[in-house]
Amino acid sequence: MIVELVIFFAALFILAKASKVVIDSSLIITEYTGLSQLSIGFIIIALAVSLPDFMVVLSASLAQKSALAIGDALGSSIANICLVLGIATLVRRVDVERRHMLDSTELLLLISIVPALILSKGFVGLYEGVILIIVFFMYVFFTLKNRFTLNIKDGVTKRQWKGAFILFFMGLFITIVSAQFVVSSASEIALGIGVSEALIGMTLVAFGTTLPELALDFTAIRKGRFALAIGDILGSTVINLTLILGVSLVISPTNIDSSLYTIPLAFIIAANSFLFYSLVKRGGIGNKEGLIFVLMYIIFIMLTLTSRVILFS
Which residues sit opposite 255 in a β-bridge? Predict the structure, then answer.
C-alpha cells in the first residue's frame, strides 16, 4: 500500500507538471498562430487544461475501470467551478458584462443536466456516449460566434513558437505515461483500503488533475485576464461533462449504480446554478461568492467521504 501511495502521488505530481508545460505551450502556439482571435482558441486552451482528466479517463476506460473514469470526470467538473474559480476569486473580484455571459452560463447549466439524466439509467454505453460527444460539438459550434484576444505578451517570436511546439509534445507524452500510473495505482489504493474506485476518482484523482488549471486561472485572474479564466473554466467544465465522459462511455459501456453519483451530480447542478446567478444576475464573482464556492467544495468532499452508499458499494 505504501508503495502504491508513493507511485500515485509521484505520478500525479509529474502529471500536473507535464500538463502545466502543455498548457503554457498551447497558450504560446495559440497566440502565435492567430487562433486567439477566434473562440476556437478557448476550446484549444480548455482542451489543453482538460488533458490530465482526458488521459486519466481514457486510461481508466481502456482498463475497463468505468467507475474511476466517471468519478474523475464528475469530480473534476465540481473542482473546476468550486475550487478553481472559488480560490481565484478570493484573491480578486471578477467582473463581467452580463450580456456576454448570459448565453454561455445558460448553456453550461443546461449541459450539466444531461449527464444527470444519462447516468440515472441502469446501463450506459455507445448510444449515451455519442449523445454527450454530439453535445460537445454543439458547444464548439456555439462558441465560434465570438472572438477574443489572449494578450499574453507584446508578441511571440518564431523561436518561441518552435520551442513551445517541442515542449507541447514532450509534455503530452509524459502526461500520457503518468496518467497510466495514476490509474493503476489509484485502483490498487481503492482495493487496499476497501473503498470504491468512484470515490478515489471523485476526490484524489480529480483534485490532482485540476491543479494545472488552478495555477493557470489563478494567474490569469490575478493579472486581470478575466475572459481567459472564465472561458477556460466554462469550457473545461463542458469538456469534462460531455467529451471526456462521452468517450469513457463509448470505450467502456457499464452498468450504472446511480446512487454512486447522486452527490456529485447534485453538486454540479447546484454549483452551475450559483455560477449563473453570480455572473448574470450580479455581474461578477467577488470574495463572498468565491468563499461560497470553496465551502461548497469542502462540503462535497465531506459528504462524499462519509457517504455509506459510496464507501461500501
Answer: 123
pLDDT at 42: 65
Say what the pTM is: 0.80
**142: containing domain:** 2-311
* Res. 310: pLDDT tops 50: no
Residue 8 exposure: Cα atoms within 13 Å on the Cβ side? 20
**Strand residues in the chain grouped as ranges (E):** 94-95, 123-124, 254-255, 284-285
What tens digit of pLDDT does each residue of 2-12 get? 888 888 788 87
Residue 289: closest CA among 299, 301, 274: 274
User: With 70 as the cut, is the pLDDT of residue 309 above it?
Assistant: no
Question: Roughly what angle, to the nearest 10 degrees, separates helices 40-49 and 126-143?
Answer: 130
DSSP state, residue 152: -
Residue type, 143: T
Number of domains in the chain: 1
Nearest alpha carbon to residue 251 among 74, 121, 65, 112? 65
Look up the CATH number of the domain holding residue 201. 1.20.1420.30
**Using CA atoms, how far apart are residues 150 and 227, in angstroms rounded to an integer?**
8
Mean confidence (pLDDT) of the chain: 80
Quote the pLDDT of residue 36. 61
